[in-house]
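Researcher: For the annotation table, I need structure tokens for Endonuclease. Please keep the output clean. Sequence:
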Amino acid sequence: MQKSPRSRTAGLATAALLALGAGTTVALTGALPAGAAPSDGLVINEVYGGGGNSGATYTQDFVEITNRGSSAISVDGYSVQYTSSSGTASWQTTPLSGSIAPGAFYLVAEAKGSGGSTALPTPDATGTIAMSATAGTVALVDSTTALTCHTSADCASAVVDLVGFGSAAIDEGSPAAGASNSESVQRSSAPDSDDNSQDFTAGDPTPAAANSGGDGGTGTGEPGPLRIHDIQGDSWISPHDGDAVTNVPGIVTGVRTQGSSKGFWFQDPDPDNDPATSEGLFAFTSSPTVKVGDSVLVSGTVQDYYPLSSGETLSTTSNLSTTELDSLTVIVLTHDQQVPAAERVTGADLPDAYAHDLGGGDIEKTSLDPSRSVLDFWESREGMRVEVDDVRVVGPSNAYGEQYVTLKPKENPSYRGGTELLAENQTPTGRLEIVPVDGSNPAVQVGDLINGATVGPVEWSSYGGYTIAATTLGTVQHNKLKPVVATPQSKKQLAIATYNVENLAPSDPASKFTALADGIVKNLSSPDIVALEEVQDNDGATDDGVVAADQTLKKLTSAIVAEGGPDYAWRSVDPVSDQDGGEPGGNIRNVFLYTTDRVSFTDRGGASTDRSTTGTTVTKVKGEPALTLSPGRIDPTNPVWASSRKPLVGQFSFKGKPVFVIANHFDAKLGDQNADGRYQYPEQSSQTQRAGQALVVHDFVQQILDVDKKADVVVVGDLNDYQFSPALSVLKTGSAAGTGTANLTDLITTLPVKQQYTYVYDGISEVLDHILVTKGADKNVEYQVVHINAEFTNQTSDHDPQVVRLNP
């Protein structure tokens, strides 16, 4: 089943949950301080006077009582009483009835206001006292007669328990602090010290009514027939998907109040013996009021939730589902319980395969086998607390506080601390996402360490597979990874770089232009030619027919000069509006920057020619290859370029020798199925278009070589595919199988394996950007990937540039 899309071992005795008949609970408190004795009767546990006020969640004031004794206590003839902070006003009373079992709670609802969004659980008693949100005194009295005392000393002998808060004149010791419209004052699990300021702290209200229900109509406070492992089942989809379930017991292990997927995780402390069934579950609610350590009974509807992108449906999404409860009713039985111990997971525990090859089949239709694949392994622990220790960061923190680590530090390591993708459908098995539930951002980058224990429930994210929703984050050790600086070209070398500048537009802050300029000048060492991808038009994403990009390029080249670089000239071809894909209205295109003192550009073709739709061709001039249009586009009306960038080709001259540069930005992978998802191995529907684009470029290069087999041709750009992909094979040889004659060398493959990456996606170091050269240009080449973005938290672009130095 589906909700609306959203924007991103045993630890406690079974008796604590199962011996709750008719409102009975077992209360486990923290360790007692030396010399202290536990309370042995009724105490006021929580006071909230902000109900119904502005900023309140709950619509009513309330007082919560608990029994810290070992046997049930009758409250027939008792009352809860209240007086204002001055201590001089008359006491108001609410009579009580019934009894309170050991460790159980008794909820007294008071006056209702006009604000708030959430009703209290069904109370055990109801009154009409309008308490102050910030200051006053509440007493538990063994009588229904209103008190007449007006000092702390006089009231002490007349009450069972008493709590003053705020500026109250009547209190025990001194008043509790922090009460407000949004926060109650709550007793700690320590023994009653008779000092309200020490015994109570402020926090989100947590009304509990175990004595008389509040559990969606059962009225018993007893666990229902199903446990979490029954709901999770031994399959990917819950056997109870869509069913209403009642009073599912567990201990709250984590609460998320950030983002669009708010709620809490709870876990059964009494697991079964089936390794395929999870003992944890997520409860989705926009206003979670429980706390970690609460013993709860949760009622709701079981949902297998699929996050859907725009246009996706249940039948088309490749995302995995998350089993959770929705439309909740929650009974808090006791606070401060020991949470189930986290399972410590190491790389040795993980299977050797990330996903099982099902020939494109749906993994959710198979049996769950934790030993089969990493996807199975983590799914069998969905919602459960796990712990990972001493992990290395392989994907930097992003703006959402998401980062990736590896549990297998020796698995496909890059030379700078990442984890590489080395073959199709071979997602590194040790990769794992970590996201702190409190919304904090540790600002880590590749190679940093997170030492000690990181703990939290497991969940699945469409943005990067299985995740620890970290309630505890280990200690960050920043290893201060340094950006790469390219070796400057010699006077005899021609330096050609490629750089995806990520939707560069004049509206971008000056800091982006400065950072791009700094990277080109200092890290790329001012190449002679720079092929840029993703340069937007003069008004960026405004979709108004503007296609010129001279303002964008002037702003960039001026920034380069300001950083001490050359005054680059540029060449480009403006696209037809909204025909090249990318951000609507942005009209991204490829651009050449070049230094006029070392390189000359060979302009060819008439000024009246529509170069956006007229393709350049190869001709022969004085026995050498030449372009009919330079700058020009390669076969721009070919269907393979539909909604995609067209290659820009330019003829340059270096020391009197012609050099042909082809700048590319192939079709993106956006339509492919999720590599962390339900279909394995995932369909890569975008491959077909990229292979078609690669063939067009291959054939164009071959036309140049047909004129001069030693011609210097350099093919650069963001090809959106891997060095081992069919598209790269087609580009090099004209054949996806690689059976044709190779006319290009992909320089990334000439580097040591540990250096073969240009991009970091979801914690995986991979190749998307390439420089390829013909045989005439591949002698004595020097090639570098210049890592300045993808591994770092603060990125100017999501791609790393690269540069080749050659001798034409």
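Researcher: And a one-line annotation?
Model: Residues 687-707 form the longest helix (21 residues).
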